[in-house]
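Q: I have 137 residues here and want to know how they pack in 3D. Can you give me a structure?
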Amino acid sequence: MGDASQNGHDEQGPAVFATARARLAADRADTLARTAALGRDFDGIVAANALVAVDDEHDPEGASTAFERAHVAALMARAHDHLEELDLALERLERGEYGQCEECGGAIPPERLEIRPAATTCVRCARSGPRRPPRPD
């Protein structure tokens, strides 16, 4: 488990490591399934649009089809970003740095990690840090 003992995350030992790994793996599997479903939705939108006139400007359905396509593409991009976050969290877990705030170095509360397994900051740092621009959903 790397240097987990110096980070203060070894008091519960391998059970905590296994729980964190299982939580990250489950979140990753869910995200992969969501990405696959979104890909099918996107392909369906494109296929359905191929059967109708391609003139989005004059087609009353064109604007909503374009919106749908853009919306699904944005959801797919967010899911891909989340997969990257989960992979980085798994790397931190292997190094023994999982659950350690990247800002202050303190412990991230287990409740926060349960809700956001890929969290990189504690609640205090997340609240006080600069707000990131909202991601498209």
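Q: Anything worth noting?
A: The helical segments are 14-50, 62-95, 110-115, 123-128. Residues 14-50 form the longest helix (37 residues).
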